[in-house]
């Protein structure tokens, strides 16, 4: 235990603003939620699911404002589609909330427990984090998903969605708050961060002592801003510069299947592959096949000299390419002289999300998994499997690419902390 | 999983300075340590223990420089004593290192594992955090303790001790590095942060991407500075504004024993009590007895009106007192009308370290433990038990008072992260 100099130890008190006032209300709601058992939390979530369906007309009407604003601004159809809510989509969101209700309760789980030699009974118990701030972009379904996961885990949530979905999010949060309050829980367990400007995010990031954790979900620049500027603890999520390494002893049919799936099955997501590295021993055979398959999948290849030599359509790769998360039909590609060279490339450029090796060599698989320092390492499987749903967690608030607290897909346990409860009968220290 | 905008995802690269150069060497050492099994790490630690004893004359000589500098500066005897190393003390430090060797290896532990419905084999495996920075004050034994715990858990460590112990720390780190290198591990697994100025700490705090976590151990102002200014993730430790609440249904003999032990058994440490709250129903009987016992223990009481009325020697308490971690023979004291009022006081003023209730009422114990949101809640036991050694963890790098990653005494598992290793046979997603 540390010996420290005397000093005031009161919590920091951020200045009063609309954002901190919201956070203070969330704090009070969190204090009321924390001691509740599962039943009232689940009841509130079921009320939320019912209310979303019952009030879907109202939500669709609000969403129409966002949609027409986006269309007027010339937003791409794909993005407008992701923004759009229909009664069917709202019903699906409500069904997801019911799925969350069915998940095991993380709160109250005894993580570790023992009776100490002196008879003290030690229990380490899962407790809610308290107030969770989520800063996210685009799709309004995240509003409901995030709120449901936070409520299920006993947390109050502060939601800061995209300004392009402001009307939709306002309507959704209104429905959520009414349902939560109707079920007898504090409405302030679910709040939208007030204000549409960037200043609101800045205030949220400085609300240390009021907000227990901030989870940014979105593009690299949003995440970097939050990580750099926040004094509230942050869980970094989602940026995925993922690699597929085709080893000297790979089954090349398997490698092809995994490469194309990792890159092109859904290129816009964080667990899609962005670089392929091929062992020199199999380059001559694999490159033409990979180029043909990638071309067929509509993928442009940014390659090193070896890849350029294999096909004139290959765009010369620069360091920028090794660093880029394309999130589209593009891939960086290099030939490497050894597994260790592949590992060195990955360690230099990865965002630490997911890397895959394709190999039939057990020692190569062992060395790759030992040396690669990323959230997930796949052996003979697509990078696309790094996902809370795929991992069987039932739900996911994001994929952490940092090492502290949570690493990889975050389910309900990752939205909790623990506390020690120690019971004695008058025990004192000698 | 989040859908993100495209962007460069390469790790941030802090500017080149002596501190970041040190961190880069640590990073390389961490990469070499991470895949090592237990045996070579333990062998290096045993070599460290032997070398500390073998070279204790050299360490004592360096320490004498720090000691005479401190004496010349008029440093208090107690602090000079804590700074002083003798061959006996060095032998005790070496024995502590051997105790660390005997602890279970946290690295490689499979935390969670299953075979997914599609046949993918999922394992969540403990891995070292990577590069751990420790910023600490005063005692040079922390240099060895922290390095031993980091090495045992497969991490490289960057040590930034007090400038008052600079010569001692330099000598100790020299011995550690020689022993580590002699055992075939990279010497750069243990490094002192270069430079004696505060700028070095500032650079360390901005070395995000090179340093995986910073753990400040020391006074409130050091910890606050690191928490506010660091972009490297921080684990907040040690500030303890701990409370003892004497309930209406307390055994007052037990309450007295726990109060005096919590406050006075070792007042300079973070798990010592700083405030006592007494239920109004037992105030008349308890206050005179508490005042007598505290006086006998040499403790000055800063009390509210009720405590002042009980004894003219009581100093009137202000809000400053409720917030203060005295770390000495002083205590703040109040009478509260109810358990909920005690909880409200604690929630307002606590640093979230340890709170104790003394009660014979099971429902009061249950309510107090549910409502108090601190690292540890004691029922009928002294606050002084919040300690890695007392909890049976074998060793402790500090006591986290934050909610993310680790909360409470941090042992070896808290110095690790995890990664997912997923093994398939050509699995791709539909």
Anisotropy-based shape of chain A: globular
Helix content of chain A: 40-55%
CATH class of the largest domain in chain A, anyone?
Answer: Alpha Beta
Largest sheet of chain A: 7 strands, parallel
* Low-pLDDT residue intervals, each spanning 5 or more residues of chain A: 1-11
Looking at this structure, what is the CATH superfamily of the largest domain in chain A?
Answer: Aldehyde Dehydrogenase, Chain A, domain 1
What is the count of structural domains of chain A? 2
What oligomeric arrangement do these chains adopt? homodimer
CATH topology of the largest domain in chain A: Aldehyde Dehydrogenase, Chain A, domain 1
Number of DSSP strands of chain A? 18
Secondary structure class of chain A reads: alpha/beta
Biggest sheet: strand arrangement of chain A: 11-10-13-9-8-14-15
Query: Average pLDDT across residues of chain A?
Result: 93
Distance between the termini of chain A: 16 Å
CATH A-level architecture of the largest domain in chain A: 3-Layer(aba) Sandwich
Largest interface: A-B, 116 and 116 residues
Radius of gyration of chain A: 24 Å
Helix count from the secondary structure assignment of chain A? 15
Residue fraction in strands of chain A: 15-25%
């Amino acid at each position: 235990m540390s010996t420290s100099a005397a000093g005031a130890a009161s919590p920091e008190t951020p200045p009063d603003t609309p954002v901190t006032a919201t956070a203070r209300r969330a704090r009070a709601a969190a204090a009321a939620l924390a001691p509740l058992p599962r039943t009232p939390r689940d009841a509130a979530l079921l009320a939320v699911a019912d209310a979303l369906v019952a009030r879907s007309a109202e939500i669709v009407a609000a969403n129409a404002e966002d949609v027409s604003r986006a269309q007027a601004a010339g937003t791409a159809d794909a993005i407008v589609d992701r923004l759009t809510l229909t009664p069917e989509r709202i019903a699906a969101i409500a069904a997801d909330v019911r799925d969350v209700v069915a998940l095991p309760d993380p709160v109250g789980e005894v993580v570790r427990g023992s009776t100490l030699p002196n008879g003290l009974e030690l229990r380490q118990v899962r407790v809610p984090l308290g107030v969770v701030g989520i800063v996210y972009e685009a799709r309004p379904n995240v509003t409901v998903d995030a709120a449901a996961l936070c409520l299920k885990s006993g947390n109050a949530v502060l939601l800061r969605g995209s300004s392009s979905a402001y009307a939709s999010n306002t309507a959704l949060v209104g429905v959520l708050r009414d349902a939560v309050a109707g079920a007898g829980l504090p409405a302030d367990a679910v709040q939208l961060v007030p204000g549409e400007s960037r200043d609101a995010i800045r205030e949220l990031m400085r609300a240390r002592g009021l907000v227990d954790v901030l989870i940014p979900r979105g593009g690299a620049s949003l995440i970097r801003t939050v990580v750099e500027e926040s004094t509230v603890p942050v869980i970094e999520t989602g940026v995925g510069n993922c690699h597929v390494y085709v080893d000297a002893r790979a089954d090349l049919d398997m490698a092809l299947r995994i490469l194309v799936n990792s890159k092109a099955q859904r290129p816009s997501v964080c667990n899609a592959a962005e670089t392929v590295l091929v062992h020199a021993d199999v380059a001559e055979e694999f490159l033409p096949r990979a180029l043909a398959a990638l071309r067929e999948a509509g993928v442009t290849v940014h390659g090193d000299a070896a890849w350029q030599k294999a096909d004139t359509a290959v765009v010369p790769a620069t360091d920028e390419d090794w660093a880029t998360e394309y999130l589209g039909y593009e891939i960086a590609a290099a030939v490497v002289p050894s597994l260790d060279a592949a590992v060195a490339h990955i360690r230099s450029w990865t965002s630490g999300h997911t890397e895959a090796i394709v190999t039939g060599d057990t020692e190569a698989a062992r060395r790759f998994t030992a040396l690669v320092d990323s959230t997930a390492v796949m052996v003979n499987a697509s990078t696309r499997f790094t996902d809370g749903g795929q991992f069987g967690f039932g739900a996911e608030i994001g994929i952490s690419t940092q090492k502290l607290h949570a690493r990889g897909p975050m389910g309900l346990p990752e939205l909790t902390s623990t506390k020690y409860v120690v019971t004695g009968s008058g025990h004192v220290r000698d």
